[in-house]
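Below is how a single chain appears once it has passed through the pipeline. First comes the sequence as given, then the structure the pipeline wrote out for it. We keep one example in the README because the format questions we get most often are answered faster by looking than by reading.
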Amino acid sequence: MPDLRDREVYRREVNNNREVIREDDSANGLLIGLSLATLAALGLGAFFLFNDRPAPQQAPAQNRTVIERTREVVPVPQKAPDVNIQVPAAPAPEVNIQAPSPAPQQPATDQEAPNVTEPVPSPTLEPTTPANP
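Resulting structure:
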C-alpha cells in the first residue's frame, strides 16, 4: 500500500508545480506587456519632442493707428397707410306672414250637423313656469 500513497503524493507535487509555472508565466507575460507598452510610449514621445519644428518668427509689429467708425442708425417714422373700406348697406328682407283666418261658427240647429273637427290652436310662445314639487 505504500505504493498508492507515493502516487498520490507525486500527483499533488506535479499539480502544485504546474500551478506555480502557470502563475509565473502569467506574471511574466504581464511584465513583458507593460514594458513593451512603456517603450512604445517613450519612443513616440521622443519622436514628437525631437521633431517639433520651431514656429517661424514673425516680423515685429508696426505701429498702426486704428480709427473706428461708428454709424448711428436713426429710425425714420413711417406714416400708417390710409385704408378706407366702404361696405354697402344690406337691404332689409321682406317678411310676409299670413295667418289663417278662423273658421266661421255655424249656428246650432236641430238638424243633423256635418261632422266638422275644430282646428287645434297653434302653440304660443308664452313662458311656462315649472310646477314646484
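The CA atoms of residues 39 and 45 lie 10 Å apart.

See the next section for the split statistics.
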